[in-house]
Structure to design on (432 residues):
């Protein structure tokens, strides 16, 4: 049995803790905030509630595996609900496309933009089949070493093709390129710096669909927090990890600033830049900046929208409608990126969604607010070219006994990647 200290109580920290505890280790979880969940938490005001971060996920098998490997099946605690529509895209020329979660439906949807566009779209998605299989087998489901990837993985990660170049080559219609590039743009990346293989997100969404949790994604964090008690994890909230204590090249404790927690293994589920011992190993990376966020409580009849609507332009606006509201009201969340020289609701009104008169509650959160609240960016590492994937840490690190999980240790910031990173750490540490 190893003494394991997990730094960070967001989704990665929760998932790592319950997995390692189930493997028989003595686990202590340290979280700076007074509550657990991080970006997987909720925001509440005046009877309204919104998911603080993600409102849906792909790869539901990752969630199912997490619950099965840490105790009871997820179906006994949460209702995972498939979404018929991944998102709707609205373009500057007034056209729009609703992206369903299945291949056949996507053909029909994109054909409404223009004859033959449905086939062009699904052919693009299908081009990522081999990419997905290589990533899954060699990178996402097994611990890997940046210095010694397999030959197929090395060829993939070493490709010079950017996502910007691929989309411009494949799509003559700018709207399809906007749809394909949106997941990366929404996470704050410049497509000219994103490797083409990162566009595999479109394939994952089509093949595995989009899923949410009945009652909000924050319930996933609640269920995992409850499981900490079931698995005997010691939880210390309001506790800031200052650094790692290393002797003879191996971690022996976590420094709390005047106190320390002894450890045989440390899992860093926060930005490694926050710990001086690891910071020098990631000094060439930068965090992806979160968007500007406005949580809205709306009274009266709001426009009927799908779960997520993307309004392309500058600024780029994303509307999410899945919040909890009192009877006769609605809860929306709006994300903004780009030139936000005016209030987001005014920008929203200019794009045809004017809800200003119905706003009864509003909670605004700047990128700085989000970073301060969650002790780092929930979007992980900014893409700065193909080398970025090797400049991250995770699941192993150069310090013996130290492992990394979370958005900063993965090629993407979504819940599937973060959940898989916790599974990789559990594999690398192994059973007691």
């Amino acid at each position: 049995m190893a003494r394991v200290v997990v730094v960070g109580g967001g989704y990665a920290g929760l998932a790592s803790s319950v997995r390692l505890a189930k493997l028989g280790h003595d686990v202590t979880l340290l979280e700076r905030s007074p509550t657990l969940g991080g970006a997987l938490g909720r925001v509440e005001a005046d009877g309204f509630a919104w998911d603080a971060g993600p409102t849906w996920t792909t790869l539901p098998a990752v969630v199912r595996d997490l619950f099965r490997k840490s105790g009871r099946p997820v179906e006994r605690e949460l209702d995972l609900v498939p979404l018929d529509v991944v998102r709707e895209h609205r373009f500057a020329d007034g056209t729009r496309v609703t992206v369903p979660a299945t291949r056949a439906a996507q053909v029909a949807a994109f054909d409404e933009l223009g004859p033959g566009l449905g086939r062009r779209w699904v052919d693009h998605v299908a081009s990522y089949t081999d990419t997905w299989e290589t990533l899954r087998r060699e990178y996402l489901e097994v611990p890997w070493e940046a210095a010694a990837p397999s030959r197929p993985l090395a060829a993939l990660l070493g490709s010079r093709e950017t996502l910007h170049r691929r989309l411009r080559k494949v799509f003559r219609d700018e709207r399809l390129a906007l749809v394909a590039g949106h997941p990366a743009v929404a996470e704050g990346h410049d497509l000219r710096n994103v490797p083409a293989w990162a566009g595999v997100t479109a394939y994952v969404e089509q093949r595995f669909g989009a899923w949410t949790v009945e009652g909000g994604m924050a319930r996933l964090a609640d269920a995992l927090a409850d499981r900490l008690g079931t698995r005997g994890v010691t939880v210390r909230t309001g506790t800031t990890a200052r650094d790692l204590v290393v002797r003879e090249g191996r971690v022996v404790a976590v420094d709390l600033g005047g106190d320390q927690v002894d450890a045989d293994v440390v899992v860093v589920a926060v930005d490694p830049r926050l710990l001086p011992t690891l910071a020098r190993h990631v000094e060439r990376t930068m965090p992806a900046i979160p968007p500007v966020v406005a949580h809205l409580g709306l009274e009266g009849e709001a426009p009927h929208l799908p779960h997520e609507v993307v309004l392309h332009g500058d600024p780029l606006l994303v509307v999410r409608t899945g919040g909890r509201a009192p009877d006769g009201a609605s809860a929306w969340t709006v994300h903004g990126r780009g030139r936000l020289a005016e209030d987001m609701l005014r920008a929203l009104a200019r794009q045809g969604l004017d809800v200003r008169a119905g706003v009864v509650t509003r909670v605004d959160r700047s990128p700085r607010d989000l970073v301060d609240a969650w002790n780092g960016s929930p979007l992980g590492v900014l893409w700065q070219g193909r080398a970025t994937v090797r400049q991250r840490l995770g699941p192993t690190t150069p310090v013996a006994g130290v492992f990394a999980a979370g958005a900063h240790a993965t090629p993407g910031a979504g819940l599937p990647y973060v959940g898989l990173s916790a599974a990789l750490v559990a594999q690398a540490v192994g059973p007691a």
